[in-house]
């Protein structure tokens, strides 16, 4: 590690020297081109030659599919800017599905010690694990040099031992998208308690519709509902204690929350066969009018604002937070900035790649790009942008609902998978699918998860 640190230091000094030299050359050029009455001076010193030999870096991204086309377009524009600013640079884009990248491909590359130069990564807990092994580039000095370190809402998910190892691309909250036109036609109101939410679900079911769109082939999707429920029933702080042993998955209030989700499945609030449905399927249930409400991340708004994807449903979808158990209690919402980009520590060994990465960061994390992401893709900013500025950037009715939901948050928490070990995430994912499939009840499933938690804690 000392050798790697020395190489990193030498690389940074080399880049800094190159920048100073480049700036000096530009100033001389400006002076020479300006009108003057003095005779031209002969300069016998050899000009510094810019290394423009071709070289390549790879950016692994997860902007795959129609729903992410706007985010991909933004990435492509940043790539063009970066290539134009760095002589000889060619950037290869490597598109991989988000779940496949996180749980399979990136883990394998990290195990081999050969990740791409730039890659999509979850901040907590993934970034810390990779940083601990010396596989991720420390960005602290780069952010300080660019003057943007203090401009982020939070860098906590990407921070390990007071150093920064990645950057969030945007923020998000989780809540319910709903068919606003249907609500108005049926005289339904946005619920203010869990009990009222159930009353709305019963009315929708009685009308022959599906109350909640759901796709559970990937377990993280139904776990959005479960995670928000246990944060209400057991408190938003309880998830922080699982990894330390201070709290347990078998806590009666956690059991009550998962049992509530189980109850909703048994009551038929979800379409039968949800364990076989892909993520896009539940959006289609809403778009076709088959289902009326859908728990999802705020990022999903881009689908409902795009005529190519949502058709006639554009302008008919609203958004509200999951309501509290008791009327008047604070609104508790999953809110984080945990998805972003990381950079291979090997970049530090090549000054030209380090320059390319620095330029990429400079172009990607700007107020302009954050607001463009909000306007075009509906992604909440990861950088400090005022709520008034966000409202002025997008006057779309659905986005205004999301801004309202943000303003109502009393307590926020990060998603559970940012706080527990990977093996616990796996046990919980398998468990919720078993509950949905009727194999286990909530209590038995959580006993299994607690056993996995204790085993993971014991290996620290």
Automatic annotation (TrEMBL):
Q: Which PROSITE patterns match?
A: PROKAR_LIPOPROTEIN
> Mind telling me which InterPro entries this protein's record contains?
Bact_solute-bd_prot1, SBP
Keywords attached to this entry = Signal, Transport
Instruction: List, alphabetically, the Gene3D superfamilies matched.
Output: Periplasmic binding protein-like II
Q: Residue span of the signal peptide, if any?
A: 1-18
User: Mind telling me which SUPFAM superfamilies this protein's record contains?
Assistant: Periplasmic binding protein-like II
Member of which family? Belongs to the bacterial solute-binding protein 1 family.
Q: What is this protein called?
A: Extracellular solute-binding protein
Provide the species name: Paenibacillus anaericanus
């Amino acid at each position: 590690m000392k050798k790697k640190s020395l190489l990193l230091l030498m690389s940074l000094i080399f880049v800094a020297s190159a920048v100073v030299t480049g700036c000096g050359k530009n100033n001389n050029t400006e002076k020479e081109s300006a009108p003057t009455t003095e005779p031209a001076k002969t300069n016998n010193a050899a000009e510094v030659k810019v290394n423009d030999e071709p070289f390549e870096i790879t950016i692994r991204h997860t902007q795959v599919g129609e729903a992410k086309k706007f985010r991909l377009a933004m990435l492509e524009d940043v790539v063009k800017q970066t290539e134009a600013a760095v002589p000889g640079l060619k950037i290869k884009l490597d598109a991989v599905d988000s779940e496949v990248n996180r749980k399979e491909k990136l883990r394998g590359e990290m195990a081999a010690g050969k990740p791409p130069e730039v890659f999509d990564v979850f901040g907590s807990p993934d970034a810390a694990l990779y940083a601990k092994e010396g596989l991720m580039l420390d960005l602290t000095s780069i952010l300080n040099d660019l003057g943007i370190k203090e401009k982020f809402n939070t860098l906590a998910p990407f921070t390990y031992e007071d150093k920064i190892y990645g950057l969030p691309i945007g923020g998000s909250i989780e809540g319910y998208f709903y068919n606003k036109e249907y609500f108005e036609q049926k005289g339904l109101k946005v619920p203010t308690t869990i009990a009222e939410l159930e009353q709305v679900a019963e009315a929708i079911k009685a009308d022959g519709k599906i109350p909640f769109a759901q796709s559970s082939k990937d377990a993280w999707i139904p776990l959005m509902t479960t995670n928000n429920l246990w944060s209400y029933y057991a408190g938003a702080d309880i998830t922080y204690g699982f990894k330390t042993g201070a709290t347990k998955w078998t806590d009666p209030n956690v059991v009550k929350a998962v049992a509530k989700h189980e109850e909703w499945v048994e009551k038929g609030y979800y379409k039968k066969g949800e364990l076989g449905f892909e993520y896009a399927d539940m959006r289609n249930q809403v778009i076709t009018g088959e289902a009326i409400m859908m728990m999802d991340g705020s990022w999903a708004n881009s689908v409902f604002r795009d005529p190519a994807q949502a058709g006639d449903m554009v302008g008919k979808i609203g958004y509200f937070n999951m309501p509290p158990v008791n009327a008047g209690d604070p609104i508790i919402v999953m809110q984080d900035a945990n998805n972003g980009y990381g950079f291979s520590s090997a970049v530090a060994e090549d000054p030209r790649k380090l320059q390319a990465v620095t330029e990429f960061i400079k172009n990607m994390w700007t107020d302009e790009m954050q607001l463009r992401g909000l306007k075009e893709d509906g992604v909440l900013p990861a950088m400090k942008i005022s709520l008034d500025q966000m409202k002025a950037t997008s006057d779309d009715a659905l986005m205004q609902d999301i801004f309202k939901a943000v303003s109502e948050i009393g307590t926020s928490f990060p998603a559970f998978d940012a706080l527990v070990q990977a093996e616990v995430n796996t046990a919980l994912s398998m468990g919720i699918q078993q509950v949905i499939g009727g194999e286990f009840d909530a209590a038995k499933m959580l006993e299994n998860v607690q056993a996995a938690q204790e085993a993971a804690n014991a290996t620290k």
